[in-house]
Each structure stands twice: as structure tokens, then as C-alpha cells.
Amino acid sequence: MDAQKYCYEQDKKLVFDIISEDEFNSFPIEKQRFIVYLRKALGIIAKACKMAGVSRNWYYTWREKDKKFRKVCEDIIEAQIDYVESKLIELIEANNPTAIIFYLKTKGKNRGWNERVSNEKKSPKEIKFKVIDGVKSEN
Description:
The protein is mainly α. The chain has seven helices and two strands; from the N terminus they run H-H-H-H-H-H-H-E-E. The protein has helices at about 5-15, 20-25, 30-40, 45-50, 55-65, 65-95, 95-105, and strands at about 130, 135-139. Strands 1-2 form a two-stranded antiparallel sheet. A hairpin with a 2-residue loop joins strand 1 and strand 2. It is elongated. The termini are far apart.
């Protein structure tokens, strides 16, 4: 077995934490190759297309026409988001202030951790004046 084929076989094993080997083998070889490279490319579609030698248009056509393929690709992308979130948590556990602030601004919004700029126009406070002997006084 040559080195390139060996690497592909090793990369293929990474997919089996997302789908079963039987399900993987049910796809045509072109889609199998794309699935492997999508996993290896950490869910980045453009990179996976380049690695697999397919255009983005082909990927989106496959995705549109094959629900099972779409689901596998979505699962790979979700797995990558889970991985990145776990890395963020590691940074938080290491007391990284930037990671802590980022987390609070994204996950703690309902507790007031946001930098929302409000475009709400508040009505001005109503002030009443009464005239007494020709002089204004505030009420």
C-alpha cells in the first residue's frame, strides 16, 4: 500500500465516529472521498472540495439531492463546532480573560453580558411649567 492510500485509509477511520462504516460504504466513492476530506478539513467546505477534487457546485448539488449525504455533512460540521467549543472551555478553565469575556458575551446575554447598542428612542421627560408673576418655574 502506498503512502497516499495509507493516509486516506487512516483519515477514513476518523469518519466512523460520525457514521457507521456500513453507512459510509453505502455512498458512491466520490461522496465517500468528500466525506473523509470534510472531516479532515475540520468541516471547512472549500478546503474539503479542493482536497477531494470537486467543485463547490457539485458539493451543493449532492447536498441538495441526497438527504443522507446532507445529514452526514451537517453532522461533521456540528462535530467540529463541538470540538471548538471544547477548546474554548479549556481556555476558560485556564483563566484566559479573553475566552471568559467572549463566552459571557455570547452565552450570558440574558444575564446582561452584552454590548448592545440600543437604537430605541426614549421619549423625553415631560416638564410642565407654570407662569407665576411673569416668571417660569418648574413643576
